[in-house]
Design a protein that fits this description.
single chain; elongated; Ferritin; mainly alpha; 84% helix
Length: 167
């Protein structure tokens, strides 16, 4: 495993996810949902920056980074689908609740994208010196915990919108 490249690729995923949440916050009308999506987006941008810094510390090449495109194809396709759904909602006068619920379900799946982080947590003992390993493990554990909270927040917002649609 090329830890630097895994970190760099996950940094790019987090940056893209942050942008999707920002766009979604601009589309939804409910102020609570807006705040939550902005919060998750800000967290994702923070994760991106942390992962990028760790990746740069370990080093990686563009070739190594590109190897992950195939491995993470499903995640990338899912992000494209979410982006298309958000664009469709943004271009509509009224948000179709069904499209919003489908988008939120896809975002729940995205919040389970911690596969790369989990792999890195298992490999932390071999990344660098002992101090770097401890710092890396603490940061990655924090990111993983944030992703669990993000999943729960998106799930709750989806339930809220589903119940609104049933009224």
């Amino acid at each position: 495993m090329k830890a630097g490249a895994v970190l760099a690729f996950n940094s790019l995923l987090e940056k893209r996810i942050a942008e999707l949440y920002r766009r979604l916050s601009d589309v939804v009308k409910d102020s609570t949902a807006k705040v939550i999506f902005r919060f998750i987006g800000a967290d994702s941008m923070k994760h991106s920056e942390v992962l990028k810094a760790l990746a740069e510390e370990l080093g990686y090449s563009d070739t190594e980074l590109n190897e992950f495109v195939g491995e993470y194809r499903d995640e990338l396709v899912l992000l494209d689908q979410i982006g298309e759904s958000i664009t469709n909602m943004a271009n509509s006068d009224d948000i179709d609740i069904k499209i919003l619920l489908e988008t939120l379900m896809m975002l729940e799946r995205v919040e389970h994208h911690t596969r790369g982080v989990e792999e890195l947590l298992r490999e932390c003992g071999r990344l660098g010196d002992e101090t770097f390993n401890k710092v890396c493990r603490a940061l990655l554990s924090s990111i993983r915990d944030d992703e669990v909270r993000h999943f729960e927040l998106v799930r709750l917002i989806r339930i809220f919108y589903r119940e609104m649609g049933e009224e």
